[in-house]
Design brief:
Number of helices: 20
Largest sheet: 5 strands, mixed
Shape: globular
Mean pLDDT: 87
Radius of gyration: 25 Å
Helix content: 55-70%
Low-confidence stretches: 486-490
Strand content: under 5%
């Protein structure tokens, strides 16, 4: 019986791996725009080798990620991605993303099994059915899949009260990703549960991960830049609003915007009442899971990017609370009703996977901006700074061209925090609100502007500007440069 159960788990992990590979290779593109930066940077990391680690980062000189302040807040992720990207930058990165996504899926399943959830596979399938964004984001060539694996490991250590192991795990997580406060928050959930149930202070739950984070920041090739950057990065995210347009992932889901924080409180209260009525007594592990689930629910209510954490952690909390009650109810259901429920979950998984594939296929192809980047490499000086009206043009331009530098990229907050006035000027030029943009390019130490074809007002201003000329155009972009003594464009 135990052997059969073991093979069932192995088969489930294999199925999850197959799902990850199928989602990843449903498109030839990478699953996120930023992924093109990560892929190229990781390949360069491998080429440089240990002797050139950490590598210089000259590409965003006007931002808080300038060469003298640079900190790779995805350092360990890039190290793990490097051998894949070095083989073949696109296909290798896709295989790495499929592997990391499969590890994340399997980690959620393992935690459900270890929590004693009777139908762990069906609970996981139910989560897939209602969270297509989770499936989509787990296929991005970004750090979040591995981040989820580490946070789930932290949860298991917390629930097992093996708190000393949080110290090395926190060190590793700090090198992996600068979201290390999430690990500390999971440990804090246990400390809060102990305070409520056992009426004592579990200082180890906070001390060990805090010490691990400190070690990870100090024993770091980027120290002390890492501490300076983390402070600025978190402050920038706290300031997100109308003045700064960041990626849509940083904004709430529409339902959260509509209901507001009162809606979040109402949802949590309703869930709390429901799960409370299914329990006979307050248990430490159950309360810890509920607190962790509530934390990530609040985070995803504020920003949709936290769906990669909210979906699994809320699932684990709800499954732990409702599985005994649900098992009793299912035992009284007739076979046809149970088969219908299973069919609904399977259909939901199919629909959710299809939505994830649609999202993945909306990502730009790796060939985008290849022509414009080649022109820049051929007709501008090495290290020349390129102005782009969209901050998310940087990853693809960088993917094809590491010879140039760029006004901003990866996050608009990097420029806004370094020079707020320059950031506002960048916004105004990009919106086509500045006449004769050539007069202002010196502020950015730039002589060229690369734009896609959506910025009609900017292009009109550039065409009307006697100090600018069209130098290159293709289906992806148009490049303007400052006139050089009346010389024609190439």
């Amino acid at each position: 019986m135990a052997g059969r159960q073991r093979w069932r788990h192995v088969a489930m992990v294999g199925l999850l791996g197959g799902l990850s590979v199928a989602l990843q290779f449903s498109t030839s593109a990478l699953g996120s725009i930023d992924g093109y930066f990560h892929a190229r940077y990781a390949a360069m990391l491998w080429q440089g080798g240990v002797s050139e680690f950490p590598p210089a980062f000259p590409w965003l000189p006007l931002t808080i990620r300038s060469a003298d302040r640079y900190y790779d807040h995805h350092m360990l992720f890039h190290v793990l991605l490097a051998p894949f990207a070095a083989v073949e930058v696109i296909q290798g990165t896709k295989w790495a993303s499929a592997l990391f996504g499969a590890l994340a899926f399997a980690a959620v399943y393992v935690v459900l099994v270890r929590r004693g959830i009777a139908r762990a596979g069906w609970w996981l399938a139910a989560m897939f059915a209602v969270a297509p964004d989770f499936l989509f984001r787990m296929q991005m060539p970004r750090v979040q899949a591995l981040s989820l694996v580490v946070l789930l490991a932290a949860l298991e250590l917390v629930l097992a009260r093996r708190l000393v192991w949080l110290l090395p795990l926190a060190v590793v997580y700090t090198w992996l990703y600068d979201a290390f406060p999430l690990l500390l928050a999971i440990a804090a959930a246990l400390a809060a549960a102990v305070a409520v149930i056992e009426r004592r202070v579990e200082w180890r739950a906070l001390a060990y991960p805090a010490l691990g984070i400190a070690v990870g920041l100090i024993v770091n090739p980027y120290f002390p830049n890492d501490i300076w950057f983390v402070a600025h990065h978190y402050w920038g995210k706290a300031e997100i609003g109308e003045a700064m347009n960041v990626g849509s992932e940083w904004y709430p889901y529409p339902v959260a915007q509509w209901l507001g924080w009162a809606g979040a409180a109402a949802v949590l209260m309703a869930v709390a009442v429901l799960v409370w009525r299914t329990r006979r007594e307050l248990e430490l592990k159950w309360l810890t899971l509920i607190l962790v689930g509530a934390l990530f629910f609040f985070l995803v209510w504020r920003s949709r990017r936290f769906i990669e954490y909210a979906a699994p952690f809320v699932l684990i909390a709800v499954a732990a609370a409702l599985d005994p009650w649900l098992t009793q109810r299912l035992a009284h259901l007739r076979g046809n009703w149970r088969r219908l429920l299973a069919l609904l979950i399977v259909v939901g998984c199919g629909a959710s996977s299809a939505l994830a594939v649609v999202r993945l296929r909306q990502r730009p192809a790796p060939e985008r901006y290849a022509g414009g980047a080649a022109w820049l490499a051929a007709y501008t000086e090495a290290g020349a700074i390129v102005f782009t009206p969209d901050w998310d043009d940087f990853p693809l331009l960088f993917f094809h061209n590491q010879r140039n530098r760029y006004v901003l990229g990866l996050d608009p907050a990097y420029l806004a925090q370094q020079d707020p006035a320059l950031y506002r000027l960048w916004q105004q030029i990009g919106r086509g609100e500045v006449a004769q943009p050539s007069r202002w390019l010196e502020r950015f130490q730039s002589e060229v502007i690369v734009s896609d074809h959506s910025h009609q007002r900017l292009r009109a201003e550039l065409d009307a500007d006697t100090g600018m000329e069209r130098a290159y155009e293709d289906d992806d972009c148009v490049i303007f440069r400052r006139r050089r003594d009346g010389s024609p464009a190439r």
